[in-house]
Amino acid sequence: MPEMPCYGVQKELLMPYRRYLVLWIAVIAMPGLAFAGWMDDAVSGLNSLRQNGQSNHSASSKVDMLANGDIAKGLKQALHKGARISVDYLGHTGGFWKHSEARIPLPKSLRTAAGLLKQAGLGSYAEQLHQRINLSAEKAVPLAKPVFYDAIHAMSFSDARRILQGPDDAATRYFERKTSPQLTKAFSPIVHKELNHSGAVKSYRAFSSQYASLPLVGGYLNDDLDGYVTRQALAAMFTVLACEEAKIRHDPVARTTQLLRRVFR
Predict the structure, then answer these.
(1) Interior CA angle at 255 toward 252 and 261, to 5°?
(2) How far is CA 106 from each of CA 3, 56, 90, 244, rounded to the nearest angstrom?
(3) Residues near 198 by Cβ (< 8 Å), separated by ≥ 6?
(4) Structure confidence by residue, pLDDT tens digits, 232-243
(5) What's the confidence (pLDDT) of residue 176?
(6) What's the pLDDT at 218?
């Protein structure tokens, strides 16, 4: 089973800060030590962190040396790589259901009904619906790969320089803002098809029927599963995409092409 593409990146980025935080605590807590050497080490470490914090300035100088075309191509290549990895991660067996950070919950409007069915000994209907919703997203994601790729290649990067100097997920969020309506329109029929193929629609009808049979509280449900699963699946793909973008920005090993190494060095 694939691991979260950039699991541990944030942890790794925090490690230097943890080291010097512990060092400062030790210096303060043990005044009896001859801590001149400790202080030198701490100052040296903090200077190193300060230099890392000046990366925006060096990034600005680096951007000035790059052609707009290279920046645009590099950002698109990073998004293309991230899209492929997000599809591979979410589109394998159990890609949504087996990963807590990607698992799609039941729609909010169904959660109360699910709780009541469980109390009535009919919880299996809710569980089956929940699993099949996630299975539908899992099956739909690989079919969305060309949709993602087409949207990436069609992007206009007139503000590519600003994106390159932006936060770790700047390219992903720009892509999300610019393409979400287009992706939703293209992805929706794929999700609709897979909701039927996976049996999620059938499970939803059974769920609704069982809920309607409950005395006093029951009633037929009318939820837009297509829209809900589409939004949730795309949100998960953007989350993994942003994770991979951050990894490319910070981890040289993730820069697998010459262009990525030149743009993100």
Answers:
(1) 85
(2) 24, 42, 18, 27
(3) 132, 135, 136, 139
(4) 999 999 999 999
(5) 92
(6) 58
> Contact 90/240 with Cβ under 8 angstroms?
yes
- What secondary structure does DSSP assign to 119-159, as a single string? HTT-HHHHHHHHHHHHHHHHHHHHHTHHHHHHHHHT---TT
**30-64 confidence digits (pLDDT tens):** 444 343 443 354 345 435 444 554 445 455 555 55
Q: d(Cα 136, Cα 230) in Å, to the nearest integer?
A: 10
Residue 142 tokens, joined: 């690989």
Burial of residue 204, with CB atoms counted within 10 A of its CB: 0-12 exposed, 13-18 middle, 19 or more buried: buried
**CB of 160 closer than 8 Å to CB of 234:** no
- How far, in Å, CA of 71 to CA of 144, rounded? 26
What pLDDT is recorded for position 108?
85
- pLDDT category, 201, cuts 50, 70, 90? very high
CA separation for the pair 244, 264 (Å, rounded) = 13
pLDDT (tens digit, 9 = 90+) per residue, 119-133?
A: 888 889 889 999 999
Which two structure tokens, joined as six digits, stand for 165? 């100097």
**Distance in angstroms (rounded) separating the CA atoms of residues 162 and 68:** 11
Contact between 85 and 244 under an 8 Å Cβ cutoff? The reply is yes
What count of Cα atoms within 13 Å lies in the side-chain half-sphere of residue 166? 16
Residue 216: count other Cβ atoms within 10 Å of its Cβ.
4
